[in-house]
Amino acid sequence: MTALSNDDLDKLALETDARSGERMLAQVHAFLGRFISYPNEHSHVAHALWCVHTHLMDKWDSTPRLAFLSPEPASGKSRALEITELLVPNPVTAINVSPAYLFRKVGSDEGVTLLYDEIDTVFGPKARDNEEMRGLLNAGHRKGAVAGRCIVRGKTVETEEIPAYAAVAMGGLGWLPDTIMSRSVVIRMRRRHDGEPIEPYRRRVHEPDGYRVRDLIVAWARSAATAWPELPAGIQDRDADVWEPLIAVADAVGGQWATRARQAGLALIAQSKEDDTSLGIRLLADCRTVFEEATELPSRTILGHLLELPESPWGDIRGKPLDERGLAKRLKLYGVKPRTIRIGNTTPRCYLRADFEIQWRSYLPPLPPKTKTSETIKTTREKLPNVLAVAAVLDLAVNGREDATIRKCAHCEKDGDILQCAYGTVEVWLHRDCVETWTAAQHLGSADLIHRRRQDGAR
């Protein structure tokens, strides 16, 4: 079906009144709801507003990406993109297309709305040589963004700048990098259950209905008066860049949509922050859990405790457990670096609590007055009695000194110049010369070996 001519659109625009925008958006909302099962009404509202905003691209400083994501296939992502294609201007479905083709389509005078299914093939673990595509999706949200290219003409190499600004809707499994997620309206799709009936979609049957709704959007957009909206206090910084165009559309439409748009924005922003925490923030939080009250911990001790935490992601980072190098690389981004400290005859790489403190205050909410962190770790270790035998948690953190007349060495049971040491949640007193032997006993998986030795001696 062909789009309406300019004369037809002008005629349709003359028939509008003060509430034509409300009727238009209501029809967009209703058409989408016929074929798509949304996880909530806020997602439904956001999708409708996003479709309308694509017809006003010259009015925005930036355009939000629309991301339909789900943990499993068959959750309605592709169908959502199919329906979106009927309502947006100049849609281009990115299936088996080269980056060069997309760049030139995006940079054309008429512009495009890019619909990219299976986006996990670009950003996910199956991604290969997609640097150019990732660059387009990362940079193209901002008006005026360009993609720089070198062109060889004969023996001359010339530079070329291709406009990259374009509206993009995506569908994929799992999650996306923060660079995309923070610029997206994220709709977490799920499989539809029996109590959520929708109308079966057939393009040959429903395409004319979709184009009629699209023409209503085009006619309204030709005379729409948009203004920068006043945003709620909960929508700020990067979130404001994402939601400002959608809320501006809602304000221009008027009626109940202004309130519904702000409610949708607040709800979906809150949901996105609950659903995902970057691995970096998760690592800072888990390190705070591991440290408890310790002032310093060897890196191997930290790694062992991280692996013990409930639902820990650190045992499988790209198919391998987190190691000392990976730990140092991730923490370096936050200005936290290991230090070499002498403990007995060893010089393990340790992390100091003082180096973490400012990062914990900056990125994490404060802990409640009383925390059960230590109890959680203790319970976990009781359920996994062999953890000490298999985890590389063999270093001791020296906490301080005590007079020899008060304490005795836990290994040889003699007094003398001893040190208060921590092994996981176990605190013991040891001679400096006994540290290595006592540590080896723990490595053999005999957590109560010393206790049994004492009993044997008593017999």
Your description of this structure?
The chain has 459 residues and is an alpha/beta fold. The chain starts with 5 loop residues before the first helix and ends with a helix. It folds into three domains: 6-275, Rossmann fold; 277-382, Arc Repressor Mutant, subunit A (Orthogonal Bundle), CATH 1.10.10; 396-459, no CATH class. The protein is built from 19 helices and 13 strands. It is elongated. A hairpin with an 8-residue loop joins strand 9 (339-340) and strand 10. Strands 2-3-6-1-7 form a five-stranded parallel beta sheet, with helices on both faces. A three-stranded antiparallel beta sheet has the order 8-10-9. Strands 11-12-13 form a three-stranded antiparallel beta sheet, with no helix packed on it. The protein is 45% helix and 15% strand. Residues 376-405 and 443-459 have low confidence and may be disordered. It has helices spanning 6-14, 20-35, 41-53, 77-87, 99-106, 120-123, 131-139, 178-181, 203-223, 238-253, 257-275, 279-291, 299-308, 324-332, 353-363, 373-383, 387-390, 435-443, 449-458; strands at 65-70, 91-93, 113-116, 146-153, 156-163, 167-173, 184-188, 296-298, 339-340, 349-352, 397-402, 418-423, 426-431.
